[in-house]
């Protein structure tokens, strides 16, 4: 018969169990301290009409002017949606348009795709972040998440995945039609549209600062729907390959059925991107921006609505 003795210590919550072997076992009961027994000092507000109604009133006084400021700022952003176009075959076309007001600050060019969903689970996962970061091993051996766009003709695809394969590839250019009939090309910056952390941290070319991207991507092939390989996206070495800002912006998936991304080039030429298969439409938007980003009145309206409700309840 085995005998055991228990020695309980209420002051610290320890229980020692001893047996004939002389060994001791420590109980799993938490120590009798304020932290482990959840007896730390705490403040629990008592909600009464005298405290709740003034709180609603103060929230209303804060939210309404903030909402008005956001709404006015959004309305001051100038935006011009140029045109919609669809083409069943590659072509070159020119569509004239007129701006009825001056755009003093920096003007950004966006392309828009309607009925284009980027939030499907398999689509969002269809990329290899290690490959996009310049990892040599992932460059030659793409992730299985990229299937069926991981290999083509027994060569690894760079960049792999459905996101890269669906990159917008229409060529857009912008001209000013002088009154004397001369068409003056308007130069557009090809950089400055991607986040700094994306270009310098998340994305990187294989081989680091190796200027010979053709050699760095040797043994790989371009995505199926691309017209040229990734190392020919731009003549500028600082904006070519995986660090091409147009490509980086495209890889930033958005939710909903409408896609808007900034593009470095604009007046339409070579509308190759197919949209008939998903009944989509393409359009171009010219817009200025503010400290809060692009034109979006929803945030201001939301603040005004919440503030007004709280004000009247207070």
From TrEMBL:
Membrane-spanning residues: 46-72
A GO-annotated cellular component: endoplasmic reticulum
The family this protein is said to belong to: Belongs to the CDC50/LEM3 family.
Keyword Electron transport on entry: no
One Pfam family hit: CDC50
Mode of membrane association: Multi-pass membrane protein
Subcellular location: Apical cell membrane; Cytoplasmic vesicle, Secretory vesicle membrane; Golgi apparatus; Membrane
GO biological process: phospholipid translocation
Species this chain originates from: Etheostoma spectabile
Domain of life: Eukaryota
Name listed for the protein in its UniProt record: Cell cycle control protein 50A
Alphabetically ordered keywords of this record: Cell membrane, Cytoplasmic vesicle, Disulfide bond, Glycoprotein, Golgi apparatus, Lipid transport, Membrane, Transmembrane, Transmembrane helix, Transport
Principal localisation: membrane
Chain spans, region Disordered: 1-29
